[in-house]
């Protein structure tokens, strides 16, 4: 196991192939989003996308997000656009490659997102928990939130265990 600190840096366009490999390790095939979608999101919202590198400097994890509003859910595969009057940072996908699991990469990426949310005076952060990650997000302070009908329809594009969650800081 590496003892080096995990390097977190902004995502770049040429990180997409490595991100696809991480994604394939983390989700079943029907939940994998294609390269052109990842690239278009970076072009629209690259200031809220981060990668984590392993000891060899290779991209081994990522977090992609955008500024949004309470109650809005991003359907699987849809483009990102920052809200004109944002309230929250919406974390669309946090994925840690198998080799980097359990070494704090997820917490480091979430910390980068929280720092940005605070710096931009947002009210908090939202996300859709999938893949059995509910307890993970609860440990980090997110709570289950209810959704209106439009949000429920977007939530239905995910797996059956999908849950909408929100976090309000005390800063
Ligand atoms: C869930 C995931 C992001 C956690 O990554 P990780 O590398 O294990 O996270 P970290 O090493 O930063 O650990 C953070 C803490 O959460 C805990 N944790 C990790 N997975 C957990 C889970 N499924 N349930 C509860 N706690 C969990 C860790 O034990 C650790 O606790 P500690 O601080 O007491 O040691 C990772 O397993 C992953 O990428 N899974 C596949 C993709 C996915 O499901 N993403 C979330 C979609 S919403």
TrEMBL record:
InterPro entries: Acyl_CoA_acyltransferase (IPR016181), GNAT_dom (IPR000182). Gene3D superfamilies: 3.40.630.30. It comes from Aquabacterium lacunae. It holds the Pfam family Acetyltransf_1. This is GNAT family N-acetyltransferase. Residues 6-170 form the N-acetyltransferase domain. GO terms for molecular function: acyltransferase activity, transferring groups other than amino-acyl groups. It comes from the Bacteria. Keywords: Transferase. Transmembrane segments: none annotated.
